[in-house]
Design a protein that fits this description.
This protein has 152 residues and is mostly helical. The protein contains seven helices and no strands. The chain has a single domain, classed as Alpha Horseshoe (Serine Threonine Protein Phosphatase 5, Tetratricopeptide repeat). The N and C termini lie far apart (45 Å).
């Protein structure tokens, strides 16, 4: 709660007064949203993330940070067990991630999050397909980027 208070009362007002709508404002809103989500306050997490997304769409357009906001919004809705909304935002994240990311790590995580949401909706077959999509992206990783499981 102290992080939320510091960011909402000290950081955000200064950024907004000096910069207006700016990527730094969106990033601060995202950090506030993460704190709200950690506290289980999903409504405020969603509100902050939606505002960050709006700023990023307006200023950055098709950008990895915009994609990240779609992902964050999907995760917040999923935590709230609003799986239909979560799925919509995660699908938007994937579409944009395919367009703008130079490495597939975030796509892998997004497909895994989509699988969790689909399980929440009782759509096991679709969840398995999402995990297969994640696995296909894992194969595209540089071998040096794949975590090593053991020691010989």
């Amino acid at each position: 709660m102290a992080a939320i208070q510091t960011r909402t009362q000290l950081v955000l007002p200064v950024y907004e007064s000096i910069l207006g709508d700016h990527p730094f404002v969106a990033t601060t809103l995202s950090w506030i949203a993460f704190s709200y989500q950690a506290l289980g306050d999903y409504e405020n997490a969603i509100k902050c993330t939606q505002r960050a997304l709006g700023i990023r769409q307006q200023l950055l357009g098709d950008h990895k940070e915009t994609a990240r906001s779609f992902y964050d919004l999907g995760v917040a809705h999923s935590a709230k067990q609003d799986y239909a909304s979560a799925l919509t935002h995660l699908e938007d994240a994937v579409k944009l991630q395919i367009k703008v990311l130079d490495t597939p790590e975030e796509l892998i995580i997004t497909h895994q999050a989509m699988a969790d949401v689909l399980r929440g909706l009782g759509r096991e077959e679709d969840a398995e397909k999402e995990m297969e999509r994640a696995a296909k992206w894992v194969k595209r990783l540089d071998p040096l980027e794949v975590p090593f499981d053991g020691v010989n």
